[in-house]
Specification:
The protein is of the alpha+beta class and 68 residues long. It has 2 helices and 4 strands; from the N terminus they run ββααββ. The protein has a 4-stranded antiparallel sheet, with helices on one face.
């Protein structure tokens, strides 16, 4: 069974939340909420991207993180 995690990346580094979300739709909703609410990862990776990646390494959703 695939699981999904939320990744943040820019030109120099990347981080992930360490989630094992079982639903692609739920992972995308969580990523959209994180993007909308902001926070430390959003500030740190401004100008980069936020992505949902499955346990096989496939990116299933991605959006740019706006510069602040």
């Amino acid at each position: 069974m695939k699981t999904y995690d939320i990744y943040f990346s820019d030109q120099s580094s990347s981080d992930n939340k360490g989630f094992a979300i079982k639903s692609e739709e739920k992972a995308i909703r969580m990523a959209e909420d994180i993007l909308a609410k902001g926070g430390s990862y959003i500030e740190e990776y401004a100008g980069g991207t936020i992505s949902v990646i499955d346990s096989e390494g496939t990116t299933v959703w991605s959006k740019p993180i706006p510069e602040r």
